[in-house]
Design brief:
- The complex is a heterodimer of chains A (365) and B (402).
- With 365 residues, chain A is of the alpha/beta class.
- In chain A, helix 1 packs parallel to helix 6 and helix 3 packs across helix 10.
- In chain A, the strands form 4 sheets. An 8-stranded mixed β-sheet of chain A has the order 5-6-4-14-15-16-13-17, sandwiched between helices.
- Chain A contains 10 helices and 19 strands.
- With 402 residues, chain B is of the alpha/beta class.
- Chain B folds into 3 domains: 171 residues, FAD/NAD(P)-binding domain, CATH 3.50.50.60; 135 residues, 3-Layer(bba) Sandwich (FAD/NAD(P)-binding domain); 76 residues, no CATH class.
- In chain B, 34% of the residues lie in helices and 20% in strands.
- In chain B, a hairpin with a 6-residue loop joins strand 10 and strand 11.
- Chain B starts with a strand and ends in a 10-residue tail after the last strand.
- Classes of the chains: A alpha/beta (365), B alpha/beta (402).
- At the A-B interface, helix 6, strand 13, helix 9 and strand 17 of A face helix 13 and strand 20 of B.
- Bound molecules: flavin-adenine dinucleotide (2 copies).
- The site of one flavin-adenine dinucleotide has 38 residues of chain B, from helix 1, helix 2, strand 5, helix 4 and helix 5.
């Protein structure tokens, strides 16, 4: 029987789409050629974070976090959700002013946040280096292990999962690598950084990131700690950057990030970037060099030229929707993305005004 | 960057020492590194002056080999140290899970041996050894020598297999075998074939061990249980460097060369075979790497002998199906992340297993649990990433100032 919806990609985004579309009573087929949640979703840190780079980004991340709250309540323990909060650290007065701006923004938008002076900062995170200007805590941000979340969404949705490689996705049909053609009511391209491989013309390119994980050091850090310069660095449209971003896993392991490299498609560790990233982290956490590293890995974020995700109908291919291009925020933004796609398909008012993410913008740029 | 050494050898066990000494005697500049404080590998560590190991260790000490101990090779930067690389990273013990295998007091036989050599007092302690292979006997005789009460050595292999193998042993006068013979004669009735451990009991520590023999089970009071089901090559570094790994061992050609140019492998890393195979392979690798192929060729027949011996060992002591199915639903498979068999069993490949359960994502990075899943289900870790062995973050940085 012809599925109502055919989704390519069982990353966190495709899985959230599958879940939401199934709620509409549609028959959903998900095609994935690797493990469920095995792409960028397995590589990512799984930080659920409210960002305020733009009004649109804020709406997307805040709506997502509200949805995540409902999801994690139903998910198994293996999803390792922890509401550890985000601590944005300010190195100097200029960054402290940015922390204050963020604090005001949060207050105006109903998000809890708390300013920390240097003394409070040192009490909150004793392993941070001395001499920092302060920080801002967003206590409702959290972390989770995204592959397990994706697996739960696929299971709970009762969507059919097909392990196969899609060679081309065109309008309302997918052509598999072995030549099989599968027709569907609509299709969703949620293939992450590989989205343009199957549908040429989608403006998504890989942006590589590297991470290091340590042995267990419970209490070494308590929040996901991110430097305030992060967004500035992360959104630098081209080139390479590193930023201090560390996470306390529930089991005590410390996950150390992050780096960005544009246009690199391979998964090898880049020694130069790895080293820059670690040195940046050590500036903030002087005891870090003594922690035992157990594994390094990389992942490819699906990036777009304007830094905004592509969520909605893809005008070049009638019958196809895009749910990709979330770059470094896809785990956070998966839930609202899935809801938005379902809203569009069901023709109901979207969960928030997400015009900024509509793919049609690519045609009048 | 011009390489400061002609040859880098990783691993200062018998294979690595034989390789380093042979290479330096050919006039090469040689760097030998090992992550332990002392050279010697699994069997010679700490034993400086006895017999054949004394010879090799003395030759090493007298040579111009530059020895760096307490140094781990963790990633591809090892390639910058020398023009050619010989990997001799050895093997670790294979653990097979049974109810109680993670209780304190349960160790590997090699682990117990190392503990005893390191001064751990076993005098008057009741010990059961269970598993397979000559290492059980070597460890039992060492324990007995140090005053332990060896209650039982349970060899799971069946007696017919064993008789055939022991009959062929006179051709292989190795130390391991001598130890085994000695052990056997000392042990008498405390040695049982067709016998294996089913579980270990105890509240905070092992108190008793349940064994099975000839259709009968019973409990043996014991405070230590050492198990040994064989060894697993340490292939992580080789795999990380892109060397072809097949059936859990590094694949090598006649000259001990791997699939990567200028990288050789020797010893347990290329397939479990014991100390003599390790030495001869180390020598061949070094001779080939220093352009002395003709001499290397003269060692081929020795190597064949030891490889055949190794194959015989593996056949004789291969785990029987029963010992591969001892774990109960709640028996931990991944110790680091505490994942029981019931959660592990449902997945068809390592990646799905790992992403669904976090099995293999802890400190051991699959070195222990991945070897178990390989033995039980035929799959294990397959995406090598640095560091090859856990290392301080400091070690991931270049050696310049912080
Ligand atoms: C180092 C790093 C850290 C990150 N940290 C965070 C974080 O803390 N918080 C956060 O919110 N985000 C983070 N991200 C970003 C996040 O991981 C991604 O945005 C998100 O995982 C993207 O999800 P996705 O489902 O779009 O893509 P993917 O997870 O890549 O899923 C796409 C799936 O499609 C499948 N696929 C592709 N092509 C085909 C085909 N032709 N046929 C069949 N199947 C196909 C792939 O196998 C894959 O499983 C991070 C990313 C990286 C790299
Ligand atoms: C626990 C144990 C006990 C054993 N006891 C005996 C015994 O009593 N009698 C016997 O005949 N055989 C014993 N064996 C078998 C033993 O493996 C061989 O007999 C012999 O030691 C093999 O020599 P090798 O050089 O191949 O490897 P090994 O002796 O294992 O030497 C490899 C060396 O490389 C080092 N190394 C590994 N990776 C790295 C890295 N990335 N960087 C730096 N250094 C590294 C290791 O620490 C080790 O020192 C034992 C094996 C094990 C695992």
């Amino acid at each position: 029987m012809k599925p109502d919806v055919l989704i390519v990609g069982a990353g966190i985004v495709g899985s959230a789409c599958a879940w939401e579309l199934s709620q509409l009573g549609l028959r959903v087929l998900v095609i994935e050629d690797e493990a469920v949640g095995g792409g960028a979703t397995a590589a990512g840190m799984g930080h659920l974070v409210v960002l305020d780079g733009s009004e649109a980004e804020f709406e997307l991340s805040a709506a997502s976090l509200r949805l995540w709250d409902q999801f994690v309540a139903r998910m198994p323990e293996g999803v390792e959700y922890s509401r550890c909060g985000t601590l944005w650290v300010a190195a100097d007065q200029e960054e402290m002013a940015e922390a204050q701006r963020k604090h005001n923004f949060c207050a105006a938008h109903g998000v809890r946040s708390e300013m920390l002076d240097p003394v409070q900062l040192a009490e909150t995170e004793p392993n941070l280096c001395p001499g920092l200007a302060g920080g801002l805590v967003l206590p409702d941000d959290g972390i989770l292990f995204a592959p397990v979340a994706a697996q739960w969404m696929i299971r709970d949705s009762k969507a059919e999962l097909l392990r196969a490689t899609v060679a081309r996705l065109e309008g309302r049909r997918a052509i598999l690598a072995d030549g099989t053609v599968i027709e569907a009511g609509i299709t969703v391209n949620a293939a992450g950084a590989r989205a343009p491989h199957i549908t040429p013309g989608i403006p998504v390119t890989p942006r590589k990131g590297q991470l290091v994980i340590t042995d267990r050091y419970p209490g070494f850090i308590r929040h996901e700690i991110v430097e305030l310069g992060y967004l500035k660095l992360a959104h630098a449209a081209s080139g390479e950057s590193v930023a201090f971003n560390v996470q306390p896993r529930k089991n005590g392991q410390v996950l150390v990030g992050s780096s960005r490299q544009h246009g690199v498609k391979t998964h090898e560790i880049d020694r130069h970037m790895l080293e820059r990233m670690l040195r940046r982290a050590i500036e903030y956490l002087p005891a870090l060099p003594q922690l035992a590293a157990i594994r390094c890995w990389t992942g490819l974020r699906p990036a777009t030229p304007d830094g905004r995700a592509l969520v909605g109908p893809w005008p070049a291919q009638p019958g196809m929707y895009l749910a990709t291009g979330h770059e470094g925020l896809g785990i956070t933004a998966a839930t609202a993305t899935g809801r938005l796609i379902a809203d569009y398909v069901a023709n109901r008012p979207p969960i928030f005004d997400a015009t900024a993410f509509l793919p049609e913008r690519c045609f009048h740029a | 960057m011009s390489a400061p050494f002609d040859i880098t050898v990783v691993g200062a066990g018998p294979a690595g020492i034989a390789a380093a000494v042979t290479a330096v005697e050919s006039g090469a500049r040689v760097l030998l590194i090992d992550d332990n404080p002392r050279p010697g590998g699994q069997i010679w560590r700490g034993d400086w002056n006895s017999g054949r190991e004394g010879d090799w260790l003395n030759r090493l000490a007298a040579s111009h080999v530059q020895l760096e101990t307490s140094t781990a090779a963790i990633d591809e930067r090892i390639l910058d140290k020398g023009r050619k690389l010989i990997l001799a990273t050895g093997a670790r013990e294979l653990f097979l899970p049974f109810p109680g295998w993670t209780l304190p007091g349960v160790t590997g036989v090699g682990g117990l041996q190392a503990l005893i050599k390191g001064g751990f007092d076993v005098a008057n302690k009741r010990i059961v050894l269970a598993g397979s292979g000559p290492l059980l006997l070597a460890c039992a005789s060492l324990a007995r020598e140090k005053g332990a009460s060896v209650m039982l050595v349970a060899e799971q292999s069946d007696s017919a297999h064993l008789r055939g193998f022991t009959a062929s042993l006179w051709r292989h006068p190795g130390k391991l075998i001598e130890g085994a013979r000695l052990g056997l004669s000392l042990l008498g009735s405390a040695y049982k074939t067709n016998c294996w451990v089913e579980s270990a009991q105890g509240r905070e520590h092992v108190e008793s061990v349940q064994l099975r023999h000839a259709g009968r089970t019973w409990q043996e009071r014991s405070v230590l249980l050492a198990t040994g089901f064989g060894l697993v090559p340490n292939t992580e570094l080789a795999a990380l460097l892109g060397c072809h790994v097949e059936d859990g061992a590094v694949h090598v050609g006649d000259w001990q060369q791997t699939s990567r140019p200028s990288i050789y492998a020797a010893g347990e890393l290329t397939g479990i075979g014991g100390v003599d195979k390790s030495i001869v392979e180390g020598r061949i690798a070094a001779l080939a790497a220093t352009g002395r192929e003709a001499e290397a060729r003269t060692l081929f027949s020795d190597r064949t002998t030891w490889r055949e011996f190794a194959a015989g060992l593996l056949r004789t002591f291969a785990p029987r199906p029963e010992v591969l199915s001892l774990a109960a639903a709640n028996t931990p498979i991944c110790r680091c992340e505490d994942i029981p068999l019931s959660e592990v069993a449902a997945h068809g490949n390592w990646r799905d297993l790992k992403l669904a359960t976090r099995c293999g994502m802890g400190f051991c990075q699959g070195r222990i649990c991945g070897s178990i899943t390989r033995a039980l289900y035929g799959y294990g870790p397959n995406s090598p990433r640095p560091p090859a062995v856990p290392a301080p973050i400091q070690a991931l940085l270049e050696e310049r100032e912080l």
